[in-house]
TrEMBL record:
Organism: Nostoc commune NIES-4072
Protein name per the record: Uncharacterized protein
Length: 120
């Protein structure tokens, strides 16, 4: 839950400043365990996303299609299935959004020997 100090602070920042702060906060954290990421979101990131949502000029999802269609490279994710298989190359993981509402997650995985899989 957002505290009053954080909420007031975010009100003074520009939208690009908030986005840059989010990028700064998540840098290097994408390999953390899912539980850690969820707690980090709840305790640190939620107020930033709440403020961005409040400022969103496209309140209806249908109006957002044009701005999200295309290929995106996630910088931080709590999608658990992305790391079910070991060896995912984070820099070569993408989300592709289509204008018909469908999307796909695509990732390249490093080859590893069977012994590695059994240790996992």
């Amino acid at each position: 839950m957002a505290n009053v100090t954080t909420t007031k602070y975010l009100g003074y920042l520009s939208t690009p400043e908030i986005k840059n702060k989010i990028l700064e906060l998540v840098k290097g954290r994408n390999v953390e365990p899912l539980k850690t990421k969820v707690e980090f979101y709840k305790n640190e990131l939620a107020p930033y996303f709440a403020e961005l949502s409040r400022r969103n000029p496209f309140s209806k999802v249908a109006e957002q299609v044009a701005i999200v269609t295309g290929v995106w490279m996630p910088i931080w994710s709590t999608i658990p299935f992305q790391d079910i298989l070991p060896g995912r190359i984070h820099e070569q993981s993408y989300q592709i959004f289509h204008n018909d509402g469908y999307y796909a997650n695509i990732a390249r995985y490093a080859r590893c020997d069977r012994a590695y899989l059994w240790r996992w």
